[in-house]
Design goal:
single chain; mainly alpha; 9 helices; 50% helix; disordered N terminus; 36737_t:CDS:1
Length: 163
């Protein structure tokens, strides 16, 4: 079928012609392109509200009922582990916000250290590309001196990065 993209998109989606033009200008040619888009990437062509509306239509409103801010934050920020190999395994940036990650293994391999490090790293300010979040850490053998050591090490590392 030789119909142009504009008619294909407008037939399938309840969106305005101006929005279709913006999507085309942003490089979205087919409905399939939109199915793979996230609200954040799609919002480069249309407003974030329009992007969410389009994605809800495409996915038959199967998006989680989360606020716009939380969706964008989850896609933009992650909690870095400061271990390049682990960050790469987790998608490149670290532990994605809104996800549950389980670290498991034999005693002594650093699971507690990782939990403490992530609890500290989630608080890195956005000005330093961090999520600027909060953490509640529940652990049976919580040693405050170790938390202070890891926090001080993190501050030193961030200061070196800024310099």
């Amino acid at each position: 079928n030789m119909r142009d993209t504009r008619s294909i998109l407008s037939a399938k989606l309840n969106i305005k012609p101006g929005q279709i033009k913006k999507l085309q200008d942003a490089g979205y040619k087919f409905l399939e392109d939109l199915k793979e888009a996230s609200p954040l990437t799609l919002s480069k062509g249309v407003s974030v509200q329009e992007a969410l509306s389009i994605i809800r239509q495409i996915k038959n409103d199967k998006l989680p009922s989360a606020s716009l801010t939380s969706i964008i934050r989850r896609e933009t920020y992650a909690i870095p582990t400061f271990c390049d190999g682990i960050d790469k395994l987790l998608g490149g940036k670290g532990v994605a916000l809104g996800k549950i990650i389980e670290f498991c293994g034999i005693p002594g391999i650093g699971k507690t250290q990782m939990g403490i490090q992530l609890s500290i790293n989630v608080q890195i300010p956005r000005s330093l590309s961090g999520p600027e979040g909060e953490a509640v850490y529940i652990e049976g053998s919580f040693i405050i001196q170790r938390v202070a050591e890891i926090a001080n090490g993190t501050i030193t590392r961030l200061n070196e990065t800024v310099e």
